[in-house]
Amino acid sequence: MKAAHQVLDAIEPIVASAPVVLAGDWNLTVTANAAAAQLGSHAPGQELLARLQSGFGLRSAWDLVNSEGSVPQTLRWARNPETPYHCDGLFLPEQLANSLQGVDVLEGSPWTELSDHNPVVARFATRATDLEQESG
Fold first, then answer.
1. Per-residue pLDDT, 119
2. CA quadruple 54, 121, 41, 33: dihedral sign
3. Rounded distance, CA 22 to CA 124, Å?
């Protein structure tokens, strides 16, 4: 948690001057989804989410499109690969939230061979017509 806040302290001037997307392994639960409370490290994650939203204007991509239901595992622990933990996340500025079409956590091969983390992938509308089709 301390390391995440140190990174945010360091990049705060950059974020203040331009829209950014922050993504990575945060080493704590990075969703406000109610099901995440069962995943461990929930309170520190909520503190980080609050800082990202209020101080940086960033929202969790996962939470924007998956506010309810189960939270997929992004970290497969080396010693206990069955214990779910959602510590990898993408954080977007509000101006990108409208074009966000979905967020997926990829599982299986080849990801299991490449890393102990499942990738988190965001899908965005790429043209005005994509946005019109989604809203209409």
1. 93
2. positive
3. 15
